[in-house]
Amino acid sequence: MIDVLVIGGGNAALCAALMAREAGASVLVLEAAPRAWRGGNSQHTRNLRCMHDAPQDVLVDAYPEEEFWQDLLKVTAGQTDEALARLVIRASASCRDWMRRHGVRFQPSLSGALHTARTNAFFMGGGKALINAYYRSAEGLGVKVRYDAPVSRIELEQGRFVAAHLDERVVEGRSLPAERIRARACVVAAGGFESNRQWLREAWGRNAEGEWPADNFLIRGTRFNTGVLLRNLMEQGADAIGDPTQAHMVAIDARAPEFDGGICTRIDCVSLGIVVNREGRRFHDEGEDFWPKRYAIWGRLVAQQPGQVGYSIIDRKALGRFMPPVFPGAMAQTLDDLARQLNLPAAALVETVGTYNAACRVGTFDHTRLDDCHTRQLVPPKSHWALPLDSPPYYGYPLRPGVTFTYLGLRTDATAAVHFSGEPSPNLFVAGEMMAGNVLGKGYTAGVGMSIGTAFGRIAGVQAARAAGFQHSSSERHDDRACV
Known about the structure:
Blueprint: E1 2-7, H1 11-22, E2 27-30, E3 47-49, H2 65-76, H3 82-92, H4 96-101, E4 106-107, E5 120-123, H5 126-140, E6 144-146, E7 153-157, E8 160-166, E9 169-171, E10 174-176, E11 179-188, H6 197-204, E12 218-219, H7 228-235, E13 240-241, E14 247-253, E15 274-277, H8 291-294, H9 298-303, E16 310-315, E17 330-332, H10 335-342, H11 346-359, E18 360-361, E19 374-375, E20 394-406, E21 409-410, E22 417-420, E23 423-430, H12 448-467, H13 474-483
Parallel strand pairs: 1-2, 1-11, 2-6, 11-23, 12-20
Antiparallel strand pairs: 3-5, 4-5, 7-8, 8-11, 9-10, 13-21, 14-20, 15-16, 16-20, 17-20, 18-19, 22-23
């Protein structure tokens, strides 16, 4: 029998697998995706939000615990478990040395990367390189990995994990039989339900116009996160947490693919111009705070607009101040022509821009700080970086909601145990997106998803190994306390 079974193949799952194996447990990883698409949403990431009290290697200045906590508190509007959130924050301060030991390399923040040089440690080579490093390390340590292995259900006995079930399936033209895989302990880290269109429809329902908003969502991440195990465990009585409509949802280029668009589809010029809906009207403050703290609200805002579409409009002054999108925007010398290219009502767009320009109170523009350029007597306002759009050419980018991961998940505690009627399971643990809703009730700040996955993946791995009868060495336990 396997000591520890890990279900999932992304950052949190691999952190769990590595920690359990370091404790001496035999470990099997079941990844639903084929090898070429392994890694879940983690393959599309690029950084980890890190607490630090002084400059450290690739991180400049300081980003202390209280500031990290206040940033998280603000974006979640208080919908977070403070104890678990602070656990994640403290873990982020010391996990990088462990990550390096498993082959992860870091680099300074890229120019134009959301003002994150102080708060976020970037992975050299991005999330794909991180995932590949973890798989190399895991396989080198003797962790067994199986691809094309989607688990359909978990077998439980009074809250205790017994076995994982795989249905009959066809892989590369071969028919594979159903399987029942037993283990002494299990970590579920199989992601949310963002790729399950029907579940998204159930969560969002119809809007006032009779539309299914979820039909117009694009999925920034993996197509393999369908929430099968999340629903299965909830149906078996696992305690749930979170709102099914809350998610890390970004405004991305409407021309992006349905799945796996990743970071390059994001539109990062929102705070440097205005955003209008298909009627040519603004609907939210584009400059209310730094972009890393606000970029993940814009998908939800666009989802609430008619047709679930929006348009980011800038002029020549914004160029060079944001990461260029992968798709070129519409470009025109006049607003009328830009409106025609974007299929927007020209008169409405011209009026919206004129009203906005007249309301701008320009002070000292500085897109690297909360400057004093704002609007006056304009609804909605623009609180910072409000410069008139008066310098052609003008550029426009169509937007759609891009779902990264959903927040509905399994309730847990500092041990990462799955709870049933308030009681922790003795041998079933959860990590990553399947429990992120304990920390993220709503909102997002750049890199915190990887912080959560790394912290709870490591905790889950330690606890699963312990449940299977294995303890870390004294030196590893010390490192575990520092990170967890």
